[in-house]
Design a protein that fits this description.
2 copies of one chain form a homodimer. A 4-stranded antiparallel beta sheet of chain A has the order 1-2-4-3, sandwiched between helices. Chain A has 5 helices and 5 strands. The first copy, chain A, is an alpha+beta fold. At the A-B interface, α1, α2, β1, α4 and β4 of A face α1, α2, β1, α4 and β4 of B.
Chain lengths: 173, 173
Amino acid sequence: MELFEAIHTRRSIRQYQEKEVPADLIKKILAAAMMAPSTADARTWHFIIVTDIDKKNKIKNVHPYVGMITKAPLGILICGDITKEKFQGFWPQDCSAAMQNLLLAAHASGLGAVWTGIYPVEERVLKFKEIFNLPEHIIPLGLAVMGWPAQSVRADERYTDNLVHYNTWKGTK
Amino acid sequence: MELFEAIHTRRSIRQYQEKEVPADLIKKILAAAMMAPSTADARTWHFIIVTDIDKKNKIKNVHPYVGMITKAPLGILICGDITKEKFQGFWPQDCSAAMQNLLLAAHASGLGAVWTGIYPVEERVLKFKEIFNLPEHIIPLGLAVMGWPAQSVRADERYTDNLVHYNTWKGTK
């Protein structure tokens, strides 16, 4: 799929077919995620593939907006490793860039996905750390729930002139 | 350009030709950025197009890694509007997803760009707020410096098996 088409037609997909996602396709999507830029090329990310139903049920119980995980073939949890940072505090940006690559790669492969937020909601961070036995220095950023789409969502254009400024904040004139 | 090709061949470009970037192409790239997902669809982003040489010089003086801005046709500063957040603290993730779309869109258009970090380095945030007259609730996240590339950078693959885990953190076994 062409880049601009992928960007303009991708939407959050929350309903999935009962059909597995092949391992080689998951790897292709992860490889795309890992090509993201990161601060000082620190590549602070880790990826946890979630297919186990017990883990899915636990996730459902600790996050208010991730109920669909139990009906999805998989989730991919993106975590940041703060010990890898060369400049402190940038890991959420690194992991968000990786997440966006991942979502685009899924969409261009015919999959549907949705980014559900964890960090910086402290309670969610702690619960996900518990569920996945994450060490102290590994922080869960967000979970992409993914599968073959069982819904289609219209992708309206979002361009808004009012959000574009030239050389200074226009509201200050 | 095909999505996976764009993702796998994009690299940070810091040297540019002395050649303008047409306004309609800038708009196309901004439209791609604004198609990013955002937490509860809050679209917390703003974009400041920087072409003015005085602004570029000021930026160069306050950021250690952005000297190339004075030789680039433009920069695009992405800022978050914290008053638009439906869930507090997620705006850097929204703006990072928009930044990643922007970088991919630039690359697929034949441009080169590099994401330079501002937030959460407090001193940089304050200086950029001053330079661009940003109100209290608008926080600069990062600056994309952009132009027609005058260098080519080889895009090595970054996939690493060791960063992939299945259903639990593998280090805890």
